[in-house]
Specification:
By secondary structure, this protein is of the alpha+beta class. It contains 14 helices and 25 strands. The strands form five sheets. Strands 1, 2, 3, 4, 5, 6, 7, 8, 9 and 10 form a ten-stranded mixed β-sheet that branches. Strands 11, 16, 17, 18, 21, 22 and 23 form a seven-stranded mixed β-sheet that branches. Strands 13-12-20 form a three-stranded mixed β-sheet, with helices on one face.
């Protein structure tokens, strides 16, 4: 965690005592360990705070609070003061113990807690006013409960609220003795995959509770080649351990659809940070952003993904000039990707005080030239050690390489979502659309933040992916009217999006249902205003004829969305819950009676989410 504030109140410093402080002189494993009190030991506001405050002030004198919500007029005290860097650090913090201590009485009833339930902290965020947000995973008799996650919000030792999905509204729990063996579950997973199966690994027993009563299940990790689909194939199957029935399928591949000069394909000549090599030359490695690096997949198939393209080669160069602005030089597309990742890193760090995807200061791995004529990009996370962004080259005719700034921002945000709310993707009611919408929102905000003359900020996703787009109105998605593609949804149906139809390519595929959240973001940011170059009417931008909405600005709505994602959303968040929790985030930042809160509420209603 990196604190960027000159002064913290005594109460807040006490709250931070369990989280490691980063300073130039003490950022070492030993120092981090020393900063963590023993389990259950809270810092004393009278004894620990003065020394901690002095250290913090000395280390960060002259810096205002991280630039967080800069220019948005957020309420003082709502800014992030500290955050854990890993699940292990979160679990070891006193904040986690305090949160667990609050889960009794009425809170236990709200959570439907039973005696064999246990709770493990995965993330801790502490606001400047001392409010603690502890994200927790649930286990039952030692087994992970899929869909049992929630966030505990407290201040000064008092429970404020709990954010949780609709999954665990029962005290019922399953017998944890399986009635079928792992081989039967493995066969059920293999038979469900449409393609050639390479491997099916048993990840163990879990209690599955997404859209069904808590059920003992096998978690099977399948890798293979999809039929008639070049996207990588890694799917998680949950198989009922009593009957062998397939309960749920989760797709693990989330698609998008030294100072050097990058002669990029899309953005012309851009400044990028590289690293010199002993003995001469340079490599496409960014030491200023956690060691983020860009590799050449050498057109290896998109399906060679499960180990992160181990045969990919790190780009190197003799003169630190990368590419020739054309695909004839393989470094040209790499320069675009390297630049896009750097801009995304800077946006999240400078605007939201997030130090990398996992808030651990580690850079992102990017792999370009994936597949042949592969028109896509994706974020991949195997849940442990293999995490990266991959970019196809396009088809050479209609599409450029998929390395535009908003695409990079979109994919990197999938990683941040996985590190925080873990929003589900396919086959989980509304959640996949919210996941995609969050990536579209921050991809857009990154594009505005970049302020690149070759790609001015707009509310179109991937317009630079098209080789010919003279009017700049063609895009992968238009956030203000996504249903213009003939498939997407922008008005939320009264019964929500049916989970069974949210599978890959289904009518409620997340790439289609993201239109609801994208519309909310656009209306709250800009109002019911038709963008230049489009011939829609104001009435076509709303679902309820409320054409007088006036936006409060994308920076404010971005701040609200980031707060909701990192402090309130859980893995099974529905659109009605997203409305509730983004409005709570707006109240946190600007007040429940603020124009920001009122405008966002109107925007949600204008997308039929009430």
């Amino acid at each position: 965690m990196q604190l960027k504030t000159a002064l913290l109140s005594t109460a807040v410093v006490a709250a931070l005592a369990g989280l490691c402080l980063h300073t130039a002189s003490t950022d070492t494993p030993a120092a981090r360990a020393a900063a963590l009190p023993a389990a259950g030991q809270a810092a004393s506001a009278t004894s620990a705070a003065p020394a901690m405050a002095a250290t913090t002030a000395a280390a960060h004198a002259g810096h205002r609070l991280s630039g967080l919500f800069a220019g948005t007029g957020a309420r003082p005290g709502s800014e992030l003061a500290a955050a854990s860097e890993s699940p292990a650090q979160a679990e070891a913090s006193p904040a986690a113990n305090r949160a667990r201590a609050l889960l009794h009485g009425a809170a236990a009833q709200e959570l439907h807690r039973v005696a064999a339930d246990a709770f493990v902290a995965r993330d801790v965020m502490i606001d400047r006013d001392g409010t603690e947000h502890v994200r927790m995973e649930r286990t039952y008799q030692g087994l992970p409960v899929v869909g049992g996650d929630f966030v505990v919000h407290s201040r000064n030792g008092k429970l404020e609220s709990i954010s949780q999905g609709d999954n665990m509204r029962t005290f019922g729990r399953p017998d944890i003795q399986p009635k079928i063996d792992a081989a039967q579950a493995r066969a059920a997973a293999a038979s469900a995959f449409d393609g050639a199966v390479a491997a099916v690994d048993n990840a163990g027993l879990v209690v599955f509770a997404q859209g069904t009563a808590p059920t003992l299940a096998y978690q099977m990790e399948l890798r293979g080649d999809r039929r008639n689909d070049p996207a990588p194939g890694h799917l998680t199957y949950y198989v009922d351990a009593g009957t062998g029935v397939l309960l749920h399928t989760e797709d693990r591949v989330q698609t998008a659809a030294a100072s050097g000069t990058g002669k990029s394909v899309i953005y012309g000549n851009v400044g990028i940070v590289t690293d010199s090599v002993a003995g001469g030359g340079f490599r496409l490695f960014d030491p200023s952003r956690g060691g983020g690096a860009t590799y050449d997949a050498n057109n290896a198939s998109a399906n060679n993904f499960s180990t992160g393209y181990p045969n990919a080669t790190l780009f190197t160069d003799a003169d630190n000039v990368w590419g020739n602005n054309a695909m004839s030089d393989r470094a040209s597309a790499a320069a675009d990707a390297h630049y896009g990742v750097a801009v995304t890193w800077d946006y999240f760090k400078n605007v939201h005080a997030r130090n990398g995807i996992f808030n651990d200061g580690k850079g992102a791995r990017s792999v370009v030239h994936v597949g042949t004529n592969y028109v896509n990009a994706f974020w991949y996370d195997n849940g442990s050690t293999v995490r990266y962004m991959a970019y196809g080259d396009g088809d050479g005719n209609t599409y450029n390489p998929l390395v535009a700034i908003d695409v990079a921002g979109h994919e990197m945000t999938h990683g941040i979502t996985g590190a925080t709310a873990k929003l589900g993707y396919y086959n989980v009611k509304d959640t996949g659309g919210i996941n995609e919408g969050i990536s579209d929102i921050f991809g857009t905000l990154v594009e505005f933040y970049a302020n690149n003359a070759s790609d001015r900020g707009d509310y179109l996703i991937g317009e630079k992916v098209f080789k010919s787009n003279p009017s700049s109105t063609q895009a992968l998605r238009a956030m203000f009217k996504q249903d213009a593609d003939g498939n997407s949804k922008v008005c939320y149906p009264s019964a929500g999006f049916t989970a069974a139809q949210t599978a890959r390519g289904g009518i409620y595929d997340p790439h289609y249902t993201s239109g609801v959240l994208n519309r909310v973001f656009y209306l709250a940011s800009e109002g019911a205003v038709v963008p230049s170059g489009f011939n829609y009417t104001k009435a076509q931008l709303v679902c309820n004829n409320d054409t007088t909405i006036a936006g409060v600005g994308r920076d404010k709505i971005g701040a609200i969305m980031y707060r909701a994602l990192t402090r309130y959303f859980v893995s099974s968040t529905t659109y009605p819950q997203a409305r509730t929790w983004t409005l709570q985030a707006a109240a946190d930042l600007y007040g429940a009676s603020s124009p920001e809160h009122a405008t966002l509420a109107r925007a949600w209603s204008a997308a039929n989410v009430n």
